[in-house]
Write a structure and sequence with these properties.
Layout lengths: L3 E6 L6 H9 L4 E6 L1 H6 L1 H5 L7 E4 L2 E4 L1 H12 L6 H27 L1 H26 L11 H16 L8 H12 L1 H8 L1 H4 L10
Parallel strand pairs: 1-2
Antiparallel strand pairs: 1-3, 3-4
Helix pairs in contact: 1-4, 1-7, 1-9, 5-6, 5-7, 6-8, 7-8
The structure holds L-gamma-glutamyl-S-nonyl-L-cysteinylglycine (0HH).
Length: 208
């Protein structure tokens, strides 16, 4: 019996990948939704180790930093590579995904109007790296023969980018196949069709 709780704002944001991962792994979790007004009071912020959300609780263990949470779940749920060597490669690839996510969030929150077109134009320079990883690995996953937290993270980033630019994967057949394969996993498919997922905007400022 697990006791997972996610405390976060009413957006997919930095919890998108962990929710997809928990669903696919057949886990249940509780959501504590923080409103803008509650957050602005400042009391909760003061208790957060880095002054930010998400906060993740696992039977008394409290974690912050979305990628640390993904890694924790990867280790706990067996989605972290099958060997120590693979686990290191999973971390490496996940850091590469984080670089795209960070650039995406900067564009969305700071320069959507002025930077969106240039951002989309530059995407192939980032996507080609992940295309090459998938072509080399051949299993359909980023590392080894089993799904890892890096796969969930990349999948969620790509879903968001397909909203930003529906044709952005057209030159990347392996990435396109990867998104199709992940989307077709039964528990992910059910989650992506759920109100819990659909009702949440991708980002907190209405841009996507
Ligand atoms: N490195 C951290 C991580 O990966 C970054 C966390 C972070 O940026 O976990 N947290 C932001 C919220 S994510 C935060 O706590 C961006 C979504 C913003 C949506 C806000 C919607 C509010 C409306 C209800 N920001 C608050 C702060 O820094 O005070």
């Amino acid at each position: 019996m697990t006791g997972f709780t996610i405390t976060y704002f009413a957006v997919r944001g930095r919890c998108g990948a962990m929710r997809i991962m928990l669903s696919d792994q057949g886990q249940e979790w509780k959501e504590v939704v923080v409103t803008f007004d509650e957050w602005m009071k400042g009391d909760l912020k003061k208790t957060c180790v880095f002054g930010q959300l998400p906060k993740f609780e696992d039977n008394g263990l409290i974690l912050y930093q979305s990628n640390a949470i993904l890694r924790h779940l990867g280790r706990k749920l067996g989605a972290n590579g099958e060997t120590e060597r693979e686990a290191s490669l999973v971390d490496m690839v996940a850091e590469g995904v984080e670089e795209i996510r960070t650039k995406y969030l900067k564009m969305i929150y700071q320069e959507y109007e002025t930077g969106k077109d240039a951002y989309i134009k530059d995407l192939p320079n980032h996507f080609c790296k992940f295309e090459a990883i998938l072509v080399k690995n051949q299993s359909g996953f980023l590392v080894g023969n089993s799904i890892s937290y890096a796969d969930y993270s990349l999948f969620e980033v790509l879903l968001n980018h397909q909203v930003l630019s529906p044709t952005c994967l057209d030159s990347f057949p392996s990435l396109k196949k990867f998104v199709e394969m992940m989307s077709a996993r039964p528990k992910i498919k059910t989650f992506l069709q759920s109100d819990a997922y659909k009702k949440l905007p991708i980002n907190g400022n209405g841009k996507q």
